[in-house]
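User: Can you predict the 3D structure for this chain?
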Amino acid sequence: MPWSFFFVLLAFYGAVGIFAEGKLGYNVISGMGVGLAASSKYIGALIMAAPLVAHFFRYGRESFKRRELYICLGICVLTFFATTPFSIMDYQLFIEEMTFEARHFASGHVGSEGDTIRSYTSFLLTTQGPLLPLALASLFWGVYRRSRPVLLVAASPIINFIFINRFAVRNTQTILPVIPFLSLLAAITLVGSAQWLGWRFKSPQRTFFLGGLILVGLALIIIPFAQSTENALNLGAFNEREPARI
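Assistant: Here is the predicted structure, written as structure tokens:
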């Protein structure tokens, strides 16, 4: 899963470059990132939303007439097949397995089905703490102000969240690709707040509030990390032989 995170962020990095500069190289980077993300974890293919949205925000309707978009899509497909040769060499089994997994997620799994929205939201609140409300604040602000940079960051996690909630089965691994974008959206909220404070208050007050924001930012980094470390240590300390003995 960590590699999937890296490839998702690589695809998003290329999308940011497409939006900001529109150079062909960024299309290549983004296409490779999408293909590798899909190859390492199929749901990673949803990051394709980022370069598509980036093209639309930069070129509007003309984006569908530009060769760069189709180069990006082509590289995405080629990268996926190059790193997942099984999908070509035994495509019938590949289709069967994909169909089986889709039916499994759609039909349900005992103990891990239903109430997906509450379950995923609770998981994010538990693991990410205040990052979630800060990210939502950034999202609402971006929609209200029609901020294309904010909407570009939000496009992929929104599509991911909608997609996984269409299935009956809930699995925390499917929500993990959303987390890096929550961090980015939360950072946008903090940076925007700091800029507003710098304009609104005089020097002594500004220093006080900026110091508070820095502490909040550090807490947002440390708290989820500490929780993840504690969970990992608890998992490592668990000895399955003891319950079996009892």
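The longest helix spans residues 203-237. The two ends are 34 Å apart (CA to CA).
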